[in-house]
Model the fold of this input.
Amino acid sequence: MEEKNDNEIRTEQNKTIYVTKSSMPSFDEYTSKIKQIWDSKWMTNMGRLHKELEEKLLAYLDVKHISLLVNGHMSLEMTIQALGLTGEVITTPFTFVSTTHAMVRGGLTPVFCDINEDDYTIDVSKIENLITDKTSAIIPVHVYGNICNIEEIEKIAQRHNLKVLYDAAHTFGIRYKGKGVGTYGDASVFSFHATKVFNTIEGGAVTFQNPEIGKRLYNLKNFGIRSETEVPSVGANAKMNEFQAAMGICNLVHINEEIEKRKQVTEWYRQRLDNIEGIVLRKAQHNVEYNYSYFPVQFVPDLLGVNRDEIYEKLKEDDIYTRKYFYPITSRVQCYKKMFEEVKTPVAERVSTNILTLPLYADLKESQVERITKRILDQIR
Ligand SMILES: *Cc1c(COP(=O)(O)O)cnc(C)c1O
Done:
């Protein structure tokens, strides 16, 4: 037998901490759920588990209409098509690159609007200047589960006859003014990726107000097939399968408990990092029942004497993995560099160089939060 050297004998205190850890049901819960797939031999194509998850999500998300898809990204692409968007769309570059890719792949031109200082969502005061006769929609992002200024976006959209599609990938289960966040705008796209608050391994959903959108999404995700011989529209394949749906059903049983635990982790962080000059934490929003999806922290280099990248590297040396989420802003990623050269979004630019999302998942221990925050505080004092 090989002997372990000192480096391999790791205590809880020096184990690697990843930025996230997927929520999973127990092995037994999952296997007893997927047993019915062996009984029915129905593994995909809107089977029984798909139907069951759909019904449970309608209730949990507090929405009237939903369509389940293979992942969040394809949900974005297909919703863009289902809404019939064309020309230019107003969006923000402070997001995961998927949001921008979906527009570009859908033949749209993203027009980048800057973000707010305090919640990182679209700065509504800057939208109208960007509207042209080619604009068909606003595609804002509820960044880190921070809710956009929905009322103002609605007003602008109405004034200019624009559609509104929310990238709601971070907002699973959030209620705004007592209503499911997916009930606002024309449609909202959720991601159920393994790293999100709620997962179906990979997966996504679209919630929408007009049932006609549901029909179009169905055609798009299922080859445009209406019946054995009828193919009235061009479609692709983006269906959620039964194994994904089973994971979702099992995870949904524990979701409230998971969110409670995330809330506790957030409080541990706050106790240690609140009220420090140069460290900017997420502010609570009014009328929002939050899901504790991320713990973003801005490190203001002029006040701290150390910058985000240095903090990131120091934590990494100690096997603590944080994420520069979102950096670079999507208008600056390689593939778009020439395309959007003169885009000016100074707030997004600055936040993106200062921000770090700290490890956050339901099972993160207080001792680990202590270790992470100590490493950070050691550097600034
Ligand atoms: C995760 C994410 C997506 C993509 O979702 P997938 O399910 O991973 O395809 C899109 N937008 C944002 C903001 C995300 O965080």
The chain has eleven helices and 13 strands. The radius of gyration is 22 Å. The CA atoms of residues 233 and 277 lie 57 Å apart.
